[in-house]
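note to self — DONT lose this again. spent like an hour looking for the file last time. sequence + predicted structure for the chain T wanted, 232 res
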Amino acid sequence: ATVIIGERLVTSMKINIISVLISVPAGIALGIWAALKKNTMTDHVISTLVMIFISVPSFVLITFLMLLLCYQNAVLPTQWPNPTDPQLQKVLGYILPVFCLSFGSVCGYCRFTRAELCEVMESDYLLLARAKGLTRNQSITRHALRNAMVPIFPSILAEFIGIMGGSMVLEGLYGIPGYGGLFIAALNAKDYNVLFVDMAIFTTVGLLANVLLDISYSIIDPRIRMGEKGNA
């Protein structure tokens, strides 16, 4: 069971890591842009598109894109490439699943980042920083962005765990031999050995993510470090 899961886990991890590396900076950048352009046409357009697209599930999106790009126009592979396929075919096979996994995350990060940054930019301490002589860009870079990242960073780790679970349906639709597809196959086949090991790995990843999350708080938010010194 461990050998089977190990082979499948590598494929899922590659897709998930690439999608996180794309969705996190893209979503945060869009959210910062929308916040800096608050109440302008740019902000309204970004917020409206995010509100529309965030409601589209990844399996609905990949079904539509497979129909459009794979079957009607033959631009991308219709299924996950085999190990013996050419390297270009393997690279093209990543485009659909990575895009569909990243799509909703980009919208979520954009909305969350915009809301947090807008709230921070209207806070009293930022107005005080401006009153002391900092320019708008300096106050945003030194204070607003860092404080806005405190509630955003935990969602990055949570998003990674969520993507691992949410890719089960997507892997089944695109024929990806990954971790999520194995979980469904083991459940249907009543292979409890594989199922239990599968669940144990997923739980372990979640626990490690929570540990990293607790450690990261003291790095991102200096107030936590000062609180520890005060208690000591």
